[in-house]
Design goal:
Shape: elongated
Number of strands: 2
Largest sheet: 2 strands, parallel
Order of helices and strands: EHEHHH
Strand content: 5-15%
Radius of gyration: 25 Å
Distance between the termini: 45 Å
Strand order of the largest sheet: 1-2
Number of helices: 4
Amino acid sequence: MKANYHTHTTRCQHAFGEDREYVEEAIRAGLRILGFSDHCPWIYQNDYVSNIRMTPQETDGYFASLEKLRKEYEKDIPAVYEILKNGSAVAQAEAAQTLHDVRAAMKINYFEDAELIASQASKYGDK
């Protein structure tokens, strides 16, 4: 699943474009998850203003904008859940096949050989 959990906005002073443009580009790129992660405001001593963080005055607008976009695009969430559900089933089948292949390649069944398990437990278990 394609995802981006680290998207900054212009509020961090090192990104370009509008919040909506990020959402729309993520959709065009086939991303299923888009996370915004602007640097939170920080109040420094001596009235210093960071050039990589949003200001405290921008915080409300940041959350308002992203919440508005989330509500606008949430109509697509059921389709995303279906994709995730199908993807989970595929991943589970892949994991089962991989485990089967690993067991076959090892030629020792560490998972079901009771005698081997007992010998390892007595050798390495709590004493």
